User: Which sequence fits this backbone?
């Protein structure tokens, strides 16, 4: 879908991104992660040409992005940033309708699309006529995501979209974006410096440092087969194990054919959360139910230890 | 009946009443200033003076707004950015000239009448409009401009859909200052032959006729106050809308 080939970008003689090669597959949730100034935001902005690359090629849908009209290209890609990005003089409805309006959709079509998006992001119809300053940070961010999705873009670009939110709201919105990704199968590229956010959302994780890709792969690959000392350091010595547990669900690890008449956990819960439940209850066995609340099996405390080998 | 409690309505009514009743106030001023042989300004009707005054201010302000906002927009575009300091300095220099000096300088070039007054008023009105435009556009957050670009707006769409609407209250505040300054400056413009509400004031000053001064000054002051209140009303509409 998006292919970087030996791409470089300099700002005032200083390399922001150097010799970057990266392939983002259709439908994949890619997370660019790294410390501040590692070039991850620049990389994202090169995709919609907010930043023009100096060397190499970037292809979108098989064509070099310079061949596109920049406005036309951007309208095919949703773009969301931190909550400051809503137009303060426009209502929620008008904000969401930004790209459809630019594309010249008809009024009834736009109104219907806004309704769909409000529903998709669990927002009430009464928000339509409100202004951004009348919304909470989390609500503003939902509108930001809705706006990015409005014209049904082929790619969704998100630059630290949840950076300004409190941990609870942030977790809710992360779940929401994961759900939208599953529902729509859209190609999503998200930039973050939050390791847990990256591990929770990514199909593929791209770790960058000093303008270069240090390692890319699935989250589990980066955790279990770090390519260098930097990668190991980055994912944290002390929390490494916990983070690995966050990559598997209780449903995957539970032993089938066993059952316990106790308060059960759901299969979608991560092993990291399950560990917390084990400790809170002071037990070493937890029954697991599936999505329809039918008994699935029992998770043993020892099963957590088997994760490192998988 | 709520509108009756609006002070703006009363101010406007007071201005109109003063304008209409001034010709009949001869007896009042005669008893106030018994030494004056002609206590009421009669060379020209006050209504005609007020219309001429308003016309002069309106035309000069319109020109100042067009040039001021135009220049403000031009020097905030990528192509015009390098001219920003030059334009700011030039316009500020226009403001540092005393209005009387501008009028005096304009007369030998243009002659007596409305034109030199118009030139002086335009020069004078430019700075607040330009400053308002620059401050308003500068206050638009860079992140917002980037988002506008990121969702696929053209530079023109960014200007008309994002920058100008957000800058509008600040620009309008600049226009307000400019118009109020020009109402005052237009008063002095009668020294070069422009007919304005300043005419009774200037003639009164040179002929030691205090009654003339009061008649002209009270009308100018009221005109300025009414205009200022009108702008405030407009600004409030903008902020709530």
Assistant:
């Amino acid at each position: 879908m998006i292919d970087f080939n030996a791409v470089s970008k300099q700002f005032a003689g200083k390399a922001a991104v150097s010799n970057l090669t990266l392939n983002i597959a259709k439908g994949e949730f890619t997370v660019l992660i790294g410390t501040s100034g590692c070039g991850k935001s620049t990389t994202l902005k090169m995709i919609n040409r907010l930043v023009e690359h100096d060397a190499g090629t970037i292809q979108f849908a098989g064509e070099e992005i310079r061949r596109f009209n920049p406005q036309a290209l951007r309208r095919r890609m949703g773009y969301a940033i931190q909550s400051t990005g809503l137009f303060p003089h426009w209502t929620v409805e008008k904000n969401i309708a930004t790209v459809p309006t630019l594309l010249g959709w008809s009024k009834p079509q736009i109104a219907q699309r806004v309704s769909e998006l409000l529903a998709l992001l669990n927002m009430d119809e009464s928000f339509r006529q409100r202004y951004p300053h009348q919304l909470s940070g989390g609500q503003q961010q939902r509108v930001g995501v809705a706006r990015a999705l409005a014209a049904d873009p082929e790619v969704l670009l998100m630059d630290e979209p949840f950076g300004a939110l409190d941990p609870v709201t942030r977790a809710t919105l992360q779940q929401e974006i994961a759900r939208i990704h599953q529902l729509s199968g859209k190609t999503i590229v998200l930039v973050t410096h939050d390791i847990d956010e990256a591990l929770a959302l990514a199909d593929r994780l791209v770790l960058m440092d000093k303008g270069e890709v240090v390692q890319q792969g699935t989250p589990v690959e980066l955790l279990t087969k770090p390519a260098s000392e930097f990668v190991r350091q980055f994912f944290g010595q002390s929390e490494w194990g916990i983070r690995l547990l966050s990559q598997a669900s209780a449903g995957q690890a539970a032993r089938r054919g066993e059952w316990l008449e106790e308060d059960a956990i759901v299969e979608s819960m991560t092993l990291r959360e399950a560990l917390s439940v084990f400790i809170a209850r002071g037990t070493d066995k937890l029954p697991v139910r599936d999505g329809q609340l039918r008994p699935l099996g029992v998770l043993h405390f020892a099963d957590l230890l088997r994760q490192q080998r998988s | 009946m709520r509108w009756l409690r609006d002070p703006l309505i009363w101010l406007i009514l007071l201005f109109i009443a003063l304008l209409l009743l001034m010709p009949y106030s001869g007896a009042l001023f005669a008893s106030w200033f018994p030494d004056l042989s002609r206590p009421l300004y009669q060379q020209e009707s006050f209504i005609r003076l007020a219309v001429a005054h308003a016309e002069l201010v309106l035309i000069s302000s319109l020109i100042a707004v067009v040039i001021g906002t135009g220049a403000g927009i031009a020097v905030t575009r990528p192509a015009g950015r390098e001219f920003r300091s030059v334009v700011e300095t030039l316009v500020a220099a226009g403001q540092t000239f005393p209005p009387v000096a501008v009028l005096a300088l304009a007369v030998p070039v243009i002659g007596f009448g409305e034109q030199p007054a118009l030139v002086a008023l335009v020069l004078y009105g430019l700075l607040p409009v330009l400053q308002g435009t620059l401050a308003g556009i500068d206050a638009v957050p860079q992140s917002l401009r980037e988002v506008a670009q990121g969702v696929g707006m053209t530079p023109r769409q960014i200007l008309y859909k994002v920058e100008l609407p957000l800058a509008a209250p600040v620009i309008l505040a600049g226009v307000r200052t400019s118009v109020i300054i020009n109402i005052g400056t237009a008063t002095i413009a009668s020294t070069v032959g422009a007919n304005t509400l300043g005419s009774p004031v200037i003639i009164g000053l040179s002929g030691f006729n205090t009654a003339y001064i009061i008649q002209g000054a009270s009308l100018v002051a009221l005109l300025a106050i009414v205009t200022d209140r009108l702008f405030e009303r407009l600004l409030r509409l903008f902020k709530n809308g």
User: Anything to note?
Assistant: The longest strand of chain A covers residues 14-24. The domain at 249-308 of chain A is CATH 3.10.580.10 (CBS-domain). Chain A touches chain B at residues 48, 50, 70-75, 79, 81-82, 84-85, 87-89, 98-99, 102, 147, 157 (CB under 8 Å).
